[in-house]
Amino acid sequence: MELAEINRISVADQVASILRRRILDGELPPGTALQELTMAASLGVSRNTVREATRILSLEGLLKRNAHRGVAVAQLSLEDVAEIYQLRHLLEIPAVLAAKMEDSDVLTEMRTALEGYEEAVEGVDWVRAVRFDLHFHTLLIRFHRNRRLESFYQKLLSELRMGMVLVDLRHDDPGGLVPAHRRIYQLLTSGETNQCATLLAQHLRDSESRLTVVMDQRIARAAAK
Amino acid sequence: MELAEINRISVADQVASILRRRILDGELPPGTALQELTMAASLGVSRNTVREATRILSLEGLLKRNAHRGVAVAQLSLEDVAEIYQLRHLLEIPAVLAAKMEDSDVLTEMRTALEGYEEAVEGVDWVRAVRFDLHFHTLLIRFHRNRRLESFYQKLLSELRMGMVLVDLRHDDPGGLVPAHRRIYQLLTSGETNQCATLLAQHLRDSESRLTVVMDQRIARAAAK
DNA sequence: AACTTGGGAATTGTTGAACACTTGACTCTC
DNA sequence: GAGAGTCAAGTGTTCAACAATTCCCAAGTT
Helix A126-141 crosses helix A147-164 at what angle (to 10 degrees)? Predict the structure, then answer.
């Protein structure tokens, strides 16, 4: 039986996926206004279907709806970043502390993510690097073995990613955070979870301040104009 | 200027709210199948609007969509309950540990919730009691001062509430958990957060086992039939 | 010149009807 | 009874229309 990949995904969900990818890859930068009719025409679907898709994405936090004013790609504020990083601490630290020897499946996936990260940095592919960076952290959360938490976390990091792909490369070094990831991975494989947790906390603080600095500059530039 | 409460909520959102209330109050028990046309007619709105509402609720986890098979009120499994309680431990314990003296606003709200809980139990109003019980715990989460976390937690407890309002009263004492809440509140007001955390952990285990027992019985009865 | 005041034009919110497709039950045959 | 064909019911999607709201711009007022 060759029923493998029959298209069982509704059109609305497919549209949502397409838009999600475009937003997360930076094709649709934060603030971009989206028109229902235009999108419907360009995607070859009806307006109703587009509305369903935007409804999905606005509940995910990627789009922002304003009644009668249309939807726009959400824009992270500094408060949003602080909130998200607070949650990252709250959720990632206990995750590594809960890591067990039985979690070798997660560890192998983390190795793959790590290698992808390093390759992307070598190839100067910023979008890909961010994707692998955040995927690595999503895998940390998997130590909790909790599906609801994973999907919540995915949503959180998606919001963050939206802000990160936009940072100007000239103001930050994409590869600067690779060594920290490598050490975290090593400490996990050797079972030194406590040491790993402290390193991770440091890494998160570092990552947050990098993002905050860049966003500060952007905001200052935007205000000056 | 008397603009106070102009209706700025879209019809779809209103429909979603109505359905949400009916589900959480147990009017629509888990497993109930819902038909788009029937709902549209009974609510006096169009089918498209109903579809938007069901989309919202399915993303919240209250409804479950099956392609071409309609939507039904979600049904909690024992695994779901375990997952949710794992998250309650992960999130509520650090919340009370983070409680500060400045959080008196939250404490006064907790007092109100506590009183409502006690009244509901006296009046043998199970639905109201569960609502106040879970609202009390939502307030604990507020110590984190994190809006994203609060909305996630609200969603989690909604799922739980759906299962709790259904428990057969003959198999459980609605008021059994009141004293624990009262003590938690007292320990918070006196700033004994560490002691409060251990009591809370015990309370959560207690609450989980109560729910699990009742659900086990329901499942056994359903299987026997 | 700054401020209001009306129009429209454009866009979203909502409706109703239509049609394609899937599902589930029913019947009919062997 | 088991399997194949049939059909009604319901969902997925589209389309066209209209109502409601916002935005913009020109005209008038002070």
Answer: 160
**Which nucleotides of strand D come closer than 7 angstroms to any CB of the protein?**
10-17, 20-23
A6 to chain B, any CB pair closer than 8 A? The answer is no
CA nearest to A156 within chain B: B148
Local confidence band at A168 (pLDDT 50, 70, 90 cut-offs): low
Which two tokens mark B207?
């609450």
pLDDT value of residue B33: 97
Mean pLDDT value across residues A95-100: 95
CA–CA gap between residue B113 and residue A214 (Å, rounded): 43
Say yes or no: Cβ of A58 under 7 A from any atom of strand D.
no
Q: Which nucleotide is nearest to B67 (CA to C1')?
A: D11
Burial of B194 (0-12, 13-18, 19+ CB in 10 A): exposed
Max CA-CA distance within chain A? 63
Predicted confidence (pLDDT) at residue B171 exceeds the cutoff of 70: no
What is the distance, to the nearest Å, from the Cα of residue A214 to the centroid of all Cα atoms in its chain?
17
Q: Which of A7-11, B43-47, B52-56, B134-138 has the lowest mean pLDDT?
A: A7-11
**Is the pLDDT confidence value at A3 over 60?**
no
Q: Which of A156, A158, A165 is nearest to A128 (CA)?
A: A165
User: Residue B151: CB partners within 8 Å, gap ≥ 6?
Assistant: none
Q: Is the pLDDT of residue B170 over 80?
A: no
Mean per-residue pLDDT, A169-195:
88
Q: What angle do CA A104, B76, A148 make, to 5 degrees?
A: 40
* Contacts with A128 (C-beta within 8 Å, 6 or more apart), sequence order: A116, A120
Identify the residue with better confidence: B57 or A4: B57
- Residues of B (79-108) placing their beta carbon closer than 7 angstroms to any atom of strand C are none
The length of chain B, given as a count of residues: 225
Residues of B in contact with A160 (CB under 8 A): none
**Long-range contacts formed by A144-153: CB under 8 A, 24+ apart:** A144/A91, A144/A94, A144/A95, A144/A98, A144/B86, A144/B90, A146/B83, A146/B86, A146/B87, A147/B83, A148/B83, A148/B84, A148/B87, A148/B156, A149/A91, A149/B87, A149/B90, A152/B152, A153/A91
Of B107, B89, B81, B96, the C-alpha closest to B167 is B81
Chain B residues in contact with A56 (beta carbon < 8 A): 55, 59
pLDDT score at B168? 61
